[in-house]
Amino acid sequence: CSAYGSELWKMATVATATPAKGQEGPSKKSGLITLLLIFLWYASSLLAITTSKMTMQMAKVPLVLCSAQFLTATFVSGSTLALQGSTMSPGRAGLSVLGGVAVTYTLGFFFTNLAFSLANASFVETVKSGEPISTVILAFLLLREREKTTTYASLLPVVLGVAMASSGEAGGGLAAFLATVASNFGFSARAVFAKQLKKDHPSSPAAKSDVSLFFHISWMGLVGLLPLAFFTETDPLKQAVGVQGFDLSRFLAVMSCNGLMYTAYNQFSFMVLSRVSTATHAVLNVCRRVCVIGVTTVVFGTPLTFVNGIGIVIAVAGMLWFTESK
């Protein structure tokens, strides 16, 4: 991750440049603030992902974990709106599309947490690097958007890299692979619906404010998650808690930390996006995923072969190519 330090500084200063007549470059203070936000985005992302995996190691209850994440997000984003004096009403404009954003976003996180319960975190994050594939597919099917030939070509190394990185002991099996792919389609569909919301219903509060959007998709998702978690994971949770040696206080502490880091990760991502270009944000997200894969490999002691390592490099290169072609 340290190898990206100088590059992140260049991105931060160049992306926040707002040169005016008579000025010679970006404000150093603005660049430092952006760099700090990028660091907080990366750090909260790493903590969110590692604590998700730790929670799933203690008890395989992905719906309970999702509920804790969405409850925290609803409270924090709702409090932010209240402090800003903004409306908490979703409005009628584009309500069905907003519901689509909430459903797909919720499914994305459920399948992500399910994948963490089935496989290594580094495996899940590597397969999640294939999200551009599902995004391109859904954008074509739902919005009839066509990409350049180079964009389609950039998906090939992503597919090859993910396949290589998923081989051997580092892999997570078919169930984990399918759960991760399902999460990719969930998040890609979320992006498609969010784009449709802002395009077709610009007057909607959720279309005008990312905090409002985050609040509404969080509470809507929570409404669906709570009953599902209660009816399907109460018994598994009781069984896990009843195991001798189970540390309930540690479990609750890790899950609480996860909820806060999950919320912070999303909020910092929006804050960085508001200060840099979309392309720069996409590149930073690729770098973030590289850091996550590296750190989780070390933290959880995931064995990687030479083929796995080369696969990760190829997949990341494909993501960078995809970003550049867009």
Secondary-structure map with pairings?
Layout: H1 5-15, H2 28-58, H3 62-84, H4 95-118, H5 121-128, H6 131-143, H7 149-165, H8 173-200, H9 205-208, H10 210-242, H11 248-273, H12 278-299, H13 306-325
Keywords:
single chain, mainly alpha, 326 residues, globular
**What is the count of β-strands?**
0
Structural class: mainly alpha
Helix content: over 70%
Oligomer: single chain
**Separate helix tally:** 13
Radius of gyration: 20 Å
Instruction: State the end-to-end CA separation.
Output: 25 Å
Largest sheet: none
Q: Helix and strand string, N-terminal first? A: HHHHHHHHHHHHH
Beta-strand proportion? under 5%
Chain-averaged pLDDT = 82
* Residue runs with pLDDT of under 50 for 5 or more positions: 11-15, 17-24
Please tell me what the overall shape is: globular
